[in-house]
Every structure is written in C-alpha cells, then in structure tokens.
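tool=predict chain=A
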Amino acid sequence: MKLIFTLAFIIAACSNHSNEDAINISGRPPEPMVTTDMEEYIPLSKHSQETLESKLLSPDISQKLVRSGGINFQSEAVDKDYNQIKGMLGGFNAYLENESQSNDNFRKSYFLSIRVPSEKYDSLLNTIAKIAFRVENKYSNVEDVTERYYDLQTRIQNKKELERRYREILSKANEVKDILEIERNLNQVRTEIESMQGQFNYLSQQIQFSSLQVQFYEELPYELNSPKKKGFWVRIFNALDNGWQVFLTFVVGLVTLWPFYFAGAIIFILIVYLKKSKNKRL
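tool=predict ok
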C-alpha cells in the first residue's frame, strides 16, 4: 500500500497535474476541465512547455498553414467546363469532396467543393480561372496554425507518457480499491488522448489538403415570353400571345359557369310554364 502512495506522489511531482492526472486516493471527483471552442484545455507540464517553446523557436521548424479559397465565374458551356474541371483533378492529386447542380429558367449552375494538396492549390486555382468565360470573384485565405499544431502534438505526447506511467503502477497494484482508482484515471487519460488525437488528425488533414470552392453558371437562351427580352417584335408577339391567353381564359371561365346556365334555364322554363297556366285559368 505504501508503494502505491509513493508512486502516486512521484506521478504528481513529475507531471505537475496534481488536480487532474494524479491518482485521486481520497475518492473525491476530479475538478471539471476548462474547455475552449477548439479543444479541451489540459495544462502542460514544465517539461512539455519547454519542449513546445524549443520547437517553436527552432530554425528547422516547418510552418503549418491552412489554405482555402474559391472562384466564381460565368461559363459559355457549363457542362463542358464541369467535365473539364473534373478531368483535371487527377493531374493535381485533388479530389471532389461534394458537388451540387441547380437549374432555373434563366441559368444552369454548378457548385464544386474540391480538396487539393496545399502545394498545388495555386496551380489548380489559376488553371480553373483560365477556362472561365468571365471571372466574377476570386479569393484566397491563409491561416497560420503552427503553434496550435505543435501544441496539440506536445499535449498528446505528454498524455501518452502519463498513460504509460499509469500502466506501470497498475501492473504493481495489489488492492482492488487502488486498481479501480488507477483504471478510472487511466480511462480518463485515454479519453483525453483520443479527443486530442482526433483534433490533431483533422488539423493535419486541413494543412495537407486545401479547400477550394468553385461556382460557375451559364446564362440560358431567353424564351419568347421571357420578360428580359426587350425587342420590338418580340414584344408584339408577346402581346398577341398574352391576348390569346386572356381570351382562352375568358372562354374557360364561361364554360366553368355551366351549372348556373342550366339552373337559369330551368327557372326560366318554370316561370314561363306558370304564366301560361295562370293565363289559361283566367
């Protein structure tokens, strides 16, 4: 039992996590963790902080950037441009993440979400811009996530080291109470590692593959009755067509009232019959 307490004290001194990572011998629940929007806050040990600072100050460190952007353009042949863009993705080691298409009376458009290796982002964007009939909008954004990347990496390493020490203690524990307590803390550390590892993997994917949004459309030929057509003869034809449609609507309306005509005829016949009968009696 003394050995367990001694080892627990060593863990607390090495990791500087007296409230979170050390074994809770008293059985009291651990203090709640403070969270942020992006990741669970887990204090680093002094050694981990020094490791992170040395990485950030190292001249050999690689800058971690998340790039994103997009382009909107008008196309002369939207289906042709769509097939051309899909066909060129393989040459840039890019892939289509999702796509959508929409049509109305005036235009046909596509929206493509593309993931492309960061080093080929500019080349793909410029290549797509060259096939556009008229570029309406082109934009890019770069976010520096170097500190966040190495901070997550160091936190994961720190937690894995703590997990290793917990397993060593667990292998030497004899009493059921101590074993259960160690396993509870071990599970908590394992959960934290998995959470941070998921964040790290997602951030690494964002760094490796940039996001490119491509939206383009084609103006469709106007229909004869399109209000956008302003030609004189087109307006004349529209007027004739509208007049004919009004006439048809009127005729259809008259036909719709046939029950009233039928009822009126019956009433008229009945009135005439009654008048004749009255005249005969006189």
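The two ends are 131 Å apart (CA to CA). The CA atoms of residues 8 and 23 lie 6 Å apart.
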